[in-house]
Amino acid sequence: MNKVAVLYICTGKYDVFWKDFYISYEKYFLPDCEKHYYVFTDAAEIYMEKENLRIHKFYQESLGWPDNTLMRFHMFLRQKAELEKYDYIFFMNANCQALDTITEEEFLPKKKDIIVVQHPGYYNKTNKQFAYDRNPKSTAYIPKGQGKYYVCGGVNGGRAQAFIQLMEELKHNIDVDKKNGELALWHDESHINHYVWTHDNYEVLPPSYCWPEDWNLPMPGKILIREKSKWIFVDMVKSQSLSGKIKAVIKKIIRR
Predict the structure, then answer these.
(1) Global pTM?
(2) Which end of the chain is less enclosed by CB atoms within 10 A, N or C?
């Protein structure tokens, strides 16, 4: 039986998604695998953490926007020694919800090491229309006319060692950008797309595995991306990147 680590971040108000995520993934996601959930959160308690020993919770303070998403690889690599014990590792956005059974045959990489998912907004577009980072000063830069796919940042993973290597490479690139005062256009998603452009060890899954709520796509949905604004005040959460008293006041309001 394959052992799978599922990486999950829910700081601030994003813990509202955890219960439905967990229930749906226990039921539908790789049901024949032994799944362990690595949850990075500042919540005092999360659903089933005491009952299920496969839930591993780690304290993670809210870093504000965009570092809550941009710095994900830094968070995960602090558990590198544990993650190396798994056969596969997958990252899932907090607002993911599995809709139907997702088997090993359809989801795990076969001839390659990494899986990525085509972004539902760009799967039928040309690379000239992709939302790549066009800033040559960023390590996520992709020149015009280059690139075959535009992939989403919210669902990805693969064989454990290969995915750890991906995380280490992107962590390094993000650190270089920060040192140089650069910020990739779409943060970690831009860096993942740059990885896909510069490597060939990946398999591409259709947007069925990154299906935005309320969208009408000509394919069945397997992993729903729930609309955040129905559950939390997204703009206010992103405003946590402000400093000083303004940041403290916003955090207080959000957590009421």
Answers:
(1) 0.90
(2) C
Q: What is the DSSP letter of 48?
A: T
Q: What is the pLDDT along the chain (256 residues), one digit of tens a residue?
A: 999 999 999 999 999 999 999 999 999 999 999 999 999 999 999 999 999 999 999 999 999 999 999 999 999 999 999 999 999 999 999 999 999 999 999 999 999 999 999 999 999 999 999 999 999 999 999 999 999 999 999 999 999 999 999 999 999 999 999 999 999 999 999 999 999 999 999 999 999 999 999 999 999 999 999 998 888 765 655 554 444 433 343 333 333 3
Q: Give how far Cα 65 sits from Cα of 11, 71, 189, 250, 254, Å.
A: 11, 10, 14, 13, 14
Nearest alpha-carbon partner for 158 in 199, 120, 186, 194:
199
What Cα–Cα distance (Å) separates residue 119 from each residue in 19, 106, 189? 25, 18, 10
Tokens describing residue 221? 């949905």
Which two three-digit tokens encode residue 116?
């990525």
Judge contact between 33 and 53, C-beta under 8 A.
no
9, 27, 240 from 246: Cα distances, Å: 24, 42, 8
The CATH homologous superfamily to which domain 3-230 belongs is: Spore Coat Polysaccharide Biosynthesis Protein SpsA; Chain A (3.90.550.10)
Total residues belonging to the chain: 256
DSSP class of residue 54? T
Contact (CB, 8 A) for 196 and 116: yes
Q: Where are the domains of the chain?
A: 3-230
d(CA 143, CA 239): 31
